[in-house]
Amino acid sequence: MIVWINGTFSAGKTSTARELTGLIPDSAVYDPEVIGGALRHLLPPKRLAEVTDYQDLPIWRRLVIEGAAAMLAELGGVLVVPMTVLKQEYRDEIFGALAARRITVRHFVLDPEETILRERIASRVEPDLPDADTRVRQWSLDHIPAYQEAMDRWLRADACAVDNGRRTPRETAEQIAALLRTGARGLCDIVQTPDPTGPTLASGVLLFDDQDRVLLVDPTYKPGWEFPGGIVEDGEAPAQAGVREVAEEVGVRLAKAPRLLVVDWEAPRPPGHGGLRFLFDGGRLPADQASTLRLPGPELRAWRFVTESEAAGMLPPVRYERLRWALRARERGTVLNLEAGTPVG
After folding, report:
1. Per residue in 42-96, pLDDT tens?
2. N or C: which end of the chain has fewer CB within 10 A?
3. β-sheet bridge partners, residue 281
């Protein structure tokens, strides 16, 4: 199991994590800050200059995941992770990949009052970084608005908030330990889909409202928006996989097999294996049905009908190209063969 202690800079994550390991048997601190420091030595300066935060490096997020899995395989027990994560898409990527490895995550966020937080920042000292106190304090102050925005937008709903403003690190750790003992507080109930070991087949279904906007869903287990759909199971026809996934994900039961729009070959990009991606036309939903879609909490957090231009800002580039050409195929009443989102043949 992983106990992830979130919160803004100077909230007291690291000191609380150290105290918590004294309260949880067979536990250890796993600090992803160490990975960020290592990348500063490993990556070329040109690559580092492309980002302002090492969390924006895909390699950092991948190493955090693999490192956590390796630590648990080596030590067993519980990992306590003191790490700020304010971008929901990074939370989805990291927690989703951990769930795929059958690693349970309990997510807590330290939430002291802003006045107390600012007092802590003002008195912060960096003994290992000479002459860096002022810079680190300013960095921490600059990130308070981002932290507050994340709390309001998603973090407070995702994590169990612990007000540690008047608590010592030991008292905060005791509070978290008590919450862990009482059950599911902080439990991230994410769908646990095993990582593929080779190329996969996946089916997506496009559903439309009465304004011809297309339905997108927001998975909890990976970053970015997606079409309703999923992996084709062994022995299952792609169209039937789409029908099944739509029923499971949004509660829509299609009366007949949807019409194929595109087949797209997705190139393998480590750690992904690629494979074939099918997009089907599920048709237009009646207005009453379109307004009452249901979502399974562990798998999807939101749905939205969007225009093609709105989808361009929500989908990853290759997935958007797949949608764009599927809409053209729908208009023309044809089927298109794509490779990496580009028509061929």
Report:
1. 999 999 999 989 999 999 999 999 999 999 999 999 999 999 999 999 999 999 8
2. C
3. 206, 259
